[in-house]
Amino acid sequence: MTIREFMSDDHRHCDDLFALAEQAAADGSLTRARSAFGDFQMAMLRHFLGEEQTLFPAFEERTGMRMGPTQVMRMEHEQMRELMVAAVDALAQDDAESFLGQLETLLIMMQQHNMKEENVLYPMCDQQLAAEQDSLIERLQGDLQTA
After folding, report:
1. Domains contained in the chain, number
2. 75 Cβ partners below 8 Å, 6+ apart?
3. Which of 12, 17, 102, 136 shows its CA 20 to 30 Å from the CA of 145?
4. Max alpha carbon distance in the chain (Å)?
5. pLDDT per residue over 113-135, tens digit each?
6. Region 74-86: what's the mean pLDDT?
7. Chain centroid to CA 75: how far?
């Protein structure tokens, strides 16, 4: 398995959790939406942590590129964190309309972000980090499970 395959699979996992939260809110069940969004948010934060503490530093160390694609991804992670907080706030206020609006914005951002990672950054990681790929994936698995 490549880094691209492993991390793209985690994107799909997060997308599935996101869809459950969105569907629950659309069905009018804010209780289910809170639970599902909590699961999604935890998965996303674990994903970000794996990238920011394991993958990105390894890539930056190998390539010397600290102001390139990883910096952009970190900035986008922060924007998505802010959107997730706004979505949680909307749920806390029982505001399904605002929650769904936050999700719409978050979905667009996630789709664009994932495309950049899957089509640009992860293939670069596969190329640059091939020698340590197995150990990196093992560390990423740990990040995604225990963060």
Report:
1. 1
2. none
3. 102
4. 50
5. 999 999 999 999 999 999 999 99
6. 98
7. 12
**For the chain, what is the mean pLDDT?**
95
In 7-99, DSSP assigns E strands to none
Is residue 7 within 8 A of residue 114, CB to CB? The reply is no
Contacts of 64 (CB under 8 A, 6+ apart): none
User: Would you say 99 and 22 are in contact if contact means Cβ atoms under 8 Å apart?
Assistant: no
pLDDT digits (tens, 9 = 90+) for 15-33: 999 999 999 999 999 999 9
d(CA 38, CA 42): 6
Domain that holds residue 33: 3-146
Q: Give the CA distances from residue 120 to residues 112, 113, 115, 116, 127, in Å, rounded to whole numbers and listed in that order.
A: 12, 10, 8, 5, 11
- How many angstroms separate the CA atoms of 16 and 79, rounded? 20
Q: How far apart are CA 86 and CA 132, in angstroms?
A: 38
> 131: which 2 tokens?
């020698």
Distance CA 131, CA 141 (A): 18
